[in-house]
């Protein structure tokens, strides 16, 4: 389902389902992050639902907290993202030990053309969400970087929430993917 114009990067609160027919296949990224074939196959067959809560805390720091659920009994992940660009450690049961940071960013300040382009005017106006996650190499024994820009763009004539992912793998493999989400209503 298309995203209502009232939902912007200022408040992503709601239920979002990854639209696999409109998204690029993330399998190669998952492989390079160290997920085995069986787990990647299970994730590929599952429906991925994001339960997103977007708010400001008592100190005025903006947060995007996401509980990711997968069908088929596959445990999802939780992403708690303060938009303050402070690096934080996380031990993710799918991706292992990671270090991540997130912020709001003006698209004109994004250098990577894939991450920078294709967004609707409201994403430019309210700024995009920039996520940077890397493996915690000493703990995970692997090296990868996933940089993302989140916003809204037109996909097949409809306004959609999307994430552009620019991924660098352990041997400098470079993968770019666009993930597209259907808005399924409020929490």
Polypeptide structure, described:
Helices cover 16% and strands 44% of the residues. The protein has 5 helices and 10 strands, in the order βααβββββααβαβββ. The chain has a 10-stranded antiparallel sheet. Strand 8 (145-155) and strand 9 form a beta hairpin. The longest helix has 9 residues, at 37-45.
Which features does this protein show?
alpha+beta, 10 strands, 44% strand, globular
- The number of distinct β-strands equals 10
Content of β-strand = 35-45%
| Sheet with the most strands: spatial strand order | 4-3-2-1-10-9-8-7-6-5
Largest sheet: 10 strands, antiparallel
Termini separation comes to 16 Å
Rg (CA only): 16 Å
Low-confidence stretches: none
Structural class: alpha+beta
Overall mean pLDDT: 95
Order of helices and strands: EHHEEEEEHHEHEEE
Shape: globular
**Counting H and I runs of at least 4 residues, what is the number of helices?**
5
State the helical fraction. Answer: 10-25%
What is the topology?
Layout lengths: L13 E5 L8 H6 L4 H9 L2 E9 L5 E9 L7 E5 L5 E5 L3 E10 L7 H4 L4 H6 L1 E8 L1 H4 L4 E11 L2 E11 L5 E10 L4
Quick take:
The protein has 187 residues and is of the alpha+beta class.
